[in-house]
């Protein structure tokens, strides 16, 4: 039996694929390569180039590969851009999830790990985010992820008394960084680590957006979690579902403490050996002082833990980016 990874040619998906293979759970990838890279898919892993909006392709991938479960990472992940492209965001993230659920039901596949997002919380007014915090997404992206969770929940309820009940969990996480494989790196044009790496490689000075926040060093504080830890949590969630073990409806994969942007910049300078003073730009509207999640539930059930220091996060990400040339 195998596990289908939607978006498995992307930065996070490619790490999940490798973690599945290492755990003896045969991965299969479906990805339309709109932001992923076929070179990120390991040799020997079945690869279907198709959109999750393509019902025939999705159902075919499930049936043809004897799939027992799905790890659903495919989607449009740019929160800021989603404000300008709401219809595209909803098509990819909401309709894509609906098509996937429909395909799973038709193929008799009953296990699903959903890659959700901390964006479902919006801008919390508490310093530490727990799973039961009210959901107030502040972008079409966050809204689409929350609707995805609702779709999955409702399908679980609808199938609960059938011969093929949907078993599922959603993993909500924040800023994913680093690399667990020198051939895979973050290629997003919007994430902090690749933005800093590209600036340093181009001889430009990285930027900080605001240094007057109500935090110890004046820069905002966020969760930064290593991609290998994220991948490991997805695999354990898949194993628990396959083994019939109980899972929560959702887990935060949070750091508990967070890191400031200045701490990230200091680590960038230390690890790369490039001495720089970040350029300070005005705050971006709506950026809160601090958003950090607890990972207590995930630690209890998914062996979630922060296994990398900030320097190791930077070091692994920098090495993978430089390896790409």
Report on the structure:
- This protein is of the alpha/beta class.
- It folds into 2 domains: about 200 residues, Rossmann fold (3-Layer(aba) Sandwich), CATH 3.40.50; about 120 residues, UDP-galactose 4-epimerase, domain 1 (Alpha-Beta Complex), CATH 3.90.25.10.
- Helix content is about 40%, strand content about 20%.
- It starts with a strand and ends with a helix.
Which consecutive residue ranges, at least 5 long each, have pLDDT under 50?
none
CATH-defined architecture of the largest domain: 3-Layer(aba) Sandwich
Across the major sheet, the strand order is: 3-2-1-4-5-7-12
> CATH top level of the largest domain?
Alpha Beta
How many discrete domains? 2
The separation of the N and C termini measures 37 Å
What is the overall silhouette?
globular
CATH homologous superfamily annotation of the largest domain: NAD(P)-binding Rossmann-like Domain
Number of E-state strands: 15
State the helicity in percent bands. Answer: 25-40%
Q: How many strands, what sense, and barrel or not for the largest sheet?
A: 7 strands, parallel
Oligomer: single chain
Order of helices and strands: EHEEHEHHEEHEEHEEEHEEHEEHH
Radius of gyration: 19 Å
Structural class: alpha/beta
Q: What do we call the CATH topology of the largest domain?
A: Rossmann fold
Keywords: Carbohydrate metabolism, Isomerase, NAD
InterPro entries: Epimerase_deHydtase (IPR001509), NAD(P)-bd_dom_sf (IPR036291), UDP_G4E (IPR005886)
Pathway: Carbohydrate metabolism; galactose metabolism
EC number: 5.1.3.2
């Amino acid at each position: 039996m195998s596990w289908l990874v939607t978006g498995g040619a992307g930065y996070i998906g490619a790490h999940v694929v490798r973690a599945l293979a290492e755990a003896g759970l045969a991965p299969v990838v479906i990805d339309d390569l709109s932001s992923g890279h076929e070179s990120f898919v390991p040799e020997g892993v079945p690869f279907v180039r198709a959109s999750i909006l393509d019902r025939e392709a999705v159902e075919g991938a499930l049936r043809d590969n004897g799939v027992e479960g799905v790890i659903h990472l495919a989607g449009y992940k740019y929160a800021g851009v989603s404000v300008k492209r709401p219809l595209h965001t909803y098509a990819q993230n909401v309709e894509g999830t609906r098509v996937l659920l429909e395909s799973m039901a038709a193929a008799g596949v009953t296990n699903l790990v959903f890659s959700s997002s901390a964006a479902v919380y919006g801008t919390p007014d508490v310093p530490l985010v727990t799973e039961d915090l009210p959901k107030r997404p502040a972008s079409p992206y966050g809204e689409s992820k929350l609707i995805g969770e609702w779709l999955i929940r409702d399908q679980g309820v609808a199938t609960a008394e059938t011969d093929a009940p949907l078993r599922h969990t959603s993993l909500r996480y924040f800023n994913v960084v680093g690399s667990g494989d020198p051939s895979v790196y973050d290629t997003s044009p919007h994430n902090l680590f690749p933005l800093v790496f590209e600036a340093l490689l181009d001889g430009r000075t990285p930027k900080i957006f605001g240094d007057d926040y109500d935090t110890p060093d004046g820069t905002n504080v966020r969760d930064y979690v290593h991609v290998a830890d994220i991948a490991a949590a997805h695999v354990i969630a898949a194993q628990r579902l396959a083994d019939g073990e109980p899972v929560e409806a959702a887990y935060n994969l949070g750091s508990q403490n967070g890191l400031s942007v200045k701490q990230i910049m200091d680590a960038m300078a230390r690890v790369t050996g490039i001495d720089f003073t970040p350029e300070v730009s005005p705050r971006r509207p709506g950026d809160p002082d601090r958003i950090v999640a607890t990972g207590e539930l995930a630690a209890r059930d998914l062996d979630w833990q922060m296994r990398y220091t900030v320097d190791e996060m930077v070091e692994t990400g920098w090495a993978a980016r430089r390896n790409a040339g």
